[in-house]
Design a protein that fits this description.
Blueprint: H1 32-46, E1 54-58, H2 64-73, E2 76-80, H3 84-89, H4 93-96, E3 107-108, H5 119-122, E4 126-132, H6 140-147, E5 149-162, H7 171-183, H8 196-205, E6 209-215, H9 227-233, H10 257-268, E7 272-281
Helix pairs in contact: 1-2, 7-10, 9-10
């Protein structure tokens, strides 16, 4: 299996050596781990992270992004994820040895309803809140995130959104939207409720000021973000996710083959982006 994602476009993409997967921009000659790290470092730069800042990481998964934040910016990270198995895996001996500054108390796996942070979290205040493809439901969750930011604190998120090219009056576009909602296990909602404009408006309703917005999938890259999906779907032996828990690295996280097929179709049509980067700020009182 090749070590780079882009040098051999027709070959299968490499299996990530991280348990937490998210999409990213892809560059010739880089392996997937390098691309994911660059994506995360770009978020750090947009948030102007400085040593000592406190960060709430929503959807912390197995801790890969938390490690990048600590190592790249020397910040304090509190991670939260509803998947207890993932949180427990952060402290497997082989992973725990990678960073001594993160402790078990820094990660929580609380029971909380979609759109609401747990009480133990909302009673604290953070300099920064960030999430990478972890929310996927606009509205009340933004209210919760805004409430835990200190005045002047920033929110940085990569969201799954329908692009500005999505036409709610196009039957084919709406068909894709419905199939994706089902196949990817998303909370069902009308297509316009997952649009970029809806995400931005929901953040404003939450009392946050939009600092910047960019859809990174619109960058003129030689290799599109969905290239890894295209390669994997072309490999009959690619190990797609199942519902069974495993200690092995699962490519693309919990993404199933049917969901990947729909994402690929929507990506090629430029109707969908997993890289809507939004930076917002809580105004000073």
């Amino acid at each position: 299996m090749p070590t780079s994602i882009a040098s051999e476009p027709s070959s299968p993409s490499p299996i990530p050596c991280r348990r937490d997967f998210h999409f990213s921009r892809l560059f010739p000659g880089d392996n997937l781990r390098e691309c994911l790290a660059r994506h995360e470092h770009y978020l750090c730069a947009k948030l102007s992270l400085k040593p000592g800042l406190s960060i709430l990481l929503v959807g912390s998964g197995c801790g890969d992004l938390a490690l990048e934040l600590v190592r790249f910016s020397n910040v304090y990270v509190r991670g939260i994820d509803a998947d207890r198995e993932k949180v427990c895996s952060c402290f497997h001996p082989t992973r725990r040895s990678r960073c001594n500054s993160l402790t078990q108390n820094d990660f929580l796996a609380p029971e909380y309803a979609s759109g609401c942070l747990p009480q133990g979290i909302v009673s604290e205040r953070y300099d920064v809140v960030c999430a990478v493809e972890a929310l996927r439901n606009f509205g009340s969750i933004y209210d919760s995130l805004a409430s835990v930011l200190k005045p002047g604190g920033k929110l940085g998120i990569f969201e799954w959104c329908w692009s500005t090219r999505f036409n709610i009056h196009d039957a084919d576009h709406c068909r894709l939207a419905g199939v994706l909602e089902s196949a990817a296990g998303l909370r069902s909602r009308a297509p316009y409720q997952r649009s970029v404009n809806c995400a931005l408006q929901s953040l404003r309703y939450s009392g946050l000021r939009i600092v910047s917005y960019e859809d990174l999938s619109e960058r003129p890259d030689d290799i599109p973000w969905y290239h890894v999906l295209e390669n994997a779907l072309g490999d009959s032996e690619f190990p797609w996710s199942t519902n069974h828990l495993t200690d092995e690295v699962v490519p693309f996280g919990a993404l199933s083959r049917p969901a990947a097929s729909i994402l690929l179709e929507a990506g090629k049509l430029k109707l969908f982006t997993p890289m809507a980067l939004i930076i917002a700020e809580r105004p000073h009182e």
